[in-house]
Amino acid sequence: MPHGYFITLEGVDGGGKTTQLERLAAALRERGLTVVTTREPGGTATAEQIRRVVLDKDLVMGARTELLLYLAARAEHVEHVIRPALAAGHVVLCDRFADSTLVYQGVVRGLPLDEVERLCRFAAEGVTPDRTILLDADPRALLARRADRQVEDRLEQEGLVFQEKVREGFLALWRRHGSRICRIDALRPADAVTRDILAALAGGDRFPRKDTNHV
Ligand code: TMP
Fold first, then answer.
1. Minimum mean pLDDT range among 106-115, 137-146, 147-156
2. pLDDT at 211 over 60
3. Does the CB atom of residue 38 touch ligand 1 within 6 A?
4. Is the CB of 70 inside a 6 Å radius of any atom of ligand 1?
5. How far apart are CA 207 and CA 214, in angstroms?
6. Phi, psi of 9 (to 5 degrees)
7. In this model, does residue 143 exceed pLDDT 70?
8. Phi, psi of 73 (to 5 degrees)
9. Which of 15, 98, 169, 212 is disulfide-compatible with 135, CB 3.0–4.6 A?
10. Of the candidates 8, 13, 11, 17, the residue with the CA atom closest to the CA atom of residue 152
11. Who contacts 122 (Cβ-Cβ below 8 Å, separation ≥6)?
12. Does ligand 1 have an atom closer than 6 angstroms to the CB of 104?
């Protein structure tokens, strides 16, 4: 049975994940691969509704509620989008996944990491990324770069100290899972970042080669 290739993009808010996801998808499609792009929380109608609730600036919620909402969205997304695409042999490019949950709800909100890990596995039916690209940047530098941008959601309005904890959380995961997670310096021109991501992916064991969807 064909099994596709699952790539996730992670990092602090505003580090350029969405732009890089689009660029990466275009580059991989040019190489003849079938690519599905998606995001978390989101990716299905139900999960997008959950996204609206969990990111609503006007709502207050506890850390456990927040965790369970992200995981409810993930369960939908894995069942209806990610698992079927992988089963069909496609490349799936996802903007955030379980590493975000470990960092935001585990490390930063302070929920017990072993519990968060266990619940993540349950929600994702054990589906894990083949490779993860960590777009790493100092939140202070990002803030300066986009000083004119409005705060968009509940998590973004948490401020600089929160984002610095997020960055540290991701770096700790990168140190622990160095073979899966590849750290890329996001504070460079978009072209250079895309080039580094492609080079990092090409170095992976099972990365699909040109003109084939089967790996
Ligand atoms: P985005 O702005 O990158 O689309 O992500 C939405 C926000 O949700 C972002 O601040 C990170 C946060 N988040 C979590 O806290 N836990 C999760 O499991 C995921 C997927 C995202």
1. 147-156
2. no
3. no
4. yes
5. 10
6. -110, 130
7. yes
8. -60, -40
9. 15
10. 13
11. 71
12. yes
